[in-house]
Amino acid sequence: MKRLFEKIGHVVTRAFLTAGEGTLLLRAIILQTPHIWKVRREVLDQMHVVLVGSMPLVIVTSVFVGAVTAVQAVYQMQALVPMKFLGVMISKTVFIELGPVLMALVVGSRLCAFYAAELGTMKVTEQLDAMTIMAIDPVRYLAMPRFWASVLMIPVVTIFADAVAVFGGYFISVMTLDISSGVFIEGLQLFYKHSDILGGLTKSVVFGGIIAMSGIFNGFHTRGGAEGVGRATMTAVVGSCLSVLVADYFLAIILFQIIFQK
Amino acid sequence: MSPEYNIPPPPRQRVADPRAFAGIAVEGLSKSFGPKVVLKDADLLIHKGETLVIIGRSGEGKSVLLKQLVRLLEPDAGRIWVEGEEIFELDAGPLMELRKKFGFLFQGAALFDSMNILQNVGLMLEEHTDWSTEKIHERACACLAQVGLSGSNDKLPSELSGGMKKRAGLARAIVMEPQFILYDEPTTGLDPITGDAINDLIIKLQRELGVTSVVVTHDMPSAFKIADRMAMLSRGNIVFSGTVDEIRNTDHPMVRQFIEGNSQGPLGAF
Questions:
Q1: Of A141, A142, A171, A238, which residue is most buried, by most CB within 10 angstroms?
Q2: Would you kindly state where each structural domain of chain A is located, as residue ranges?
Q3: What is the rounded distance in angstroms from the CA atom of residue A235 to the CA atom of residue A251?
Q4: Contact, B99 vs B70, CB < 8 A?
Q5: Strand pairing report for B102-105 and B24-33
Q6: B121/chain A closest Cα distance in angstroms
Q7: Are B179 and B190 spatial neighbours (Cβ–Cβ below 8 Å)?
Q8: Chain A to chain B Cβ contacts (< 8 Å)
């Protein structure tokens, strides 16, 4: 029994310690942000990684998300709801939930794994130590550009994904589900609210931060050799996905029950 | 029954006023990793302009000591003064300034693998000077030429041999004209000829730049070639310190066993 409590105590202490260290890292990144111009090349490189590198994944994921949503929606709606509501159903589902969350899970996992593996390898091969000895702060040179690239580019990826998903839904609806183009487009405009897109984008900004922090934090805290890098990468991806899902719930409450409700 | 050895106590290497000492003064340094005690109340003096070689068996804490000289690791106890400044009392800004006085050659060179050699060497200049790109390029090329790596500018670290990586690491270490260069096992893993070329480079840089060098190694031919003074680290402490001649002629049983490469002696075999 004593051992059980010791183990629980150890896990809780470790969780608080990790949260504290993560907060300190985030604080350090924000404090280094005024120096962003000095590392602009690194920021642009990282933006390229997020945006251009993710495009094939984004396109394939989004097209099929839109298509599946259309098929499922038609199945649910048939004989109960007029088909003119198909467009609004797809767009709202994609803008508010599927676009931001799926991009954070799919593109986020890719990015998070990339950050953790890259920085973890730098850690175990003493490249981070070398940088520190060269009087170059790894937080400023490595963490800050990656954080802002993710925070700024994940919403851009999400906008693109939203558009592709709606197009995917439109394409499948018109080509295979006997929905006319006019009915679908009319449905898109029904009940359209800016807050749907704004809420989705606000989510994706927060998700961008979570993804970057998970990758950077685990990369910086990598121990051991190749196995350590593997473990850090796995922890980063799992941590990022779980944090995104939990954050999604709280953001849904804050955004759609408090802010945009008024 | 194992023989008893007459081991003298560690030499007391302290100065009356470390704030007035021009080199590096280490006092009472202790460091443990979990239950493993790596350094235990270790003292060391590194005089300005000399090449001090720290010898000792693998895992004795030589690299840990070296990393503490630039505060890459925090000690459990003890103090280090660099040119009179107590490094563990420095805030982030002054510590960064102090680190600019150091060059560090890592055992695996620790080159940034996403950058080519020229970018690796020029990074510190890019970060800490307002020089033009041309001037940075010129200085980085000059450093690469100094270590015999002209023409390798665009190569990535993964395209270099072990010896070339060390030389590129050395070029990166000297690019800001440091006052101190720390070498962590500079010849380990290299063939004897390449290792000797690295030794010649260390001597050449010491003569040309007048730097204070601290070299951690267990490669004795290399140590005897480059050292002005040698110190032996064992069981968490500096057990012997002296000139090359003094270490050659000492009857300290630990030093004798180590420099003769004998498996029998107070250090044991494993």
A1: A142
A2: 2-259
A3: 23
A4: yes
A5: unpaired
A6: 11
A7: no
A8: 49
pLDDT digits (tens, 9 = 90+) for A208-225: 999 999 999 999 999 988
Contact B238, B60 (CB under 8 A): no
Instruction: Using CB atoms within 10 Å of the CB of residue B113, give its burial: 0 to 12 exposed, 13 to 18 middle, 19+ buried.
Output: middle
Establish if B24 belongs to a structural domain: yes
Closest among B127, B75, B65 to B96, alpha carbons compared: B127
B121 touches B175 (CB < 8 A): yes
B77 touches chain A (CB under 8 A): no
For residue B181, what are the contacts with CB-CB under 8 A and spacing of at least 6?
B102, B103, B104, B105, B173, B174, B205, B211, B212, B213, B214
**Residues A99, A257: Cα–Cα separation, whole Å:** 19
Quick one: which of B163, B137, B168, B136 has its CA closest to B152? B168
- Out of A125, A129, A135, the one facing B96 most closely (by C-beta) is A135
Between the alpha carbon of residue A199 and those of residues A65, A157, A159, the distances in Å are: 19, 15, 12
- The secondary element (H helix, E strand) that includes residue A254 is none
pTM to 2 decimal places: 0.87
Q: State how far the Cα of B115 lies from the Cα of A183, in Å rounded to an integer.
A: 54
Q: Which residue does chain A place closest to B130, by CA atoms?
A: A38
> Across the interface, do A134 and B113 touch by the CB < 8 Å criterion?
no
Chain B residues with beta carbon closer than 8 angstroms to that of A135: 96-97, 99-100, 124, 127-128
pLDDT in tens, chain B (270 residues): 456 777 777 777 777 788 888 899 999 999 999 888 899 888 999 999 999 999 988 888 899 999 999 999 999 999 999 999 999 999 989 999 999 999 999 988 999 999 999 999 999 999 999 999 999 999 999 999 888 888 888 999 999 988 899 989 999 999 999 999 999 998 887 888 888 888 998 898 888 888 999 999 988 889 999 999 999 998 888 888 889 999 888 888 888 888 887 777 777 656
- Is B109 inside a domain boundary? no
Q: Domain for residue B56, yes or no?
A: yes
Beta bridge partners of B32: B37
Q: Which domain holds residue B229?
A: 1-101+181-191+212-270
Q: Which of A38, A125, A129 sits opposite B72 (nearest CB)?
A: A129
Q: Which residues of A touch B112 (CB under 8 A)?
A: 122, 127, 130-131
Q: Per residue in B172-186, pLDDT tens?
A: 999 999 999 999 998
State the CATH number of the domain containing residue B65: 3.40.50.300
Instruction: Identify residues of A whose CB sits under 8 angstroms from chain B CBs.
Output: 38, 118, 121-122, 125-127, 129-137, 141
Residue B131 lies in a domain: no
At B240 the three-state DSSP class reads strand
Contact with chain A for residue B97, Cβ under 8 A: yes
- The pLDDT tens digits of the residues spanning A22-63 come to 999 999 999 999 999 989 999 999 999 999 888 999 999 999
Measure the CA–CA gap between A136 and B123, rounded to whole angstroms.
9
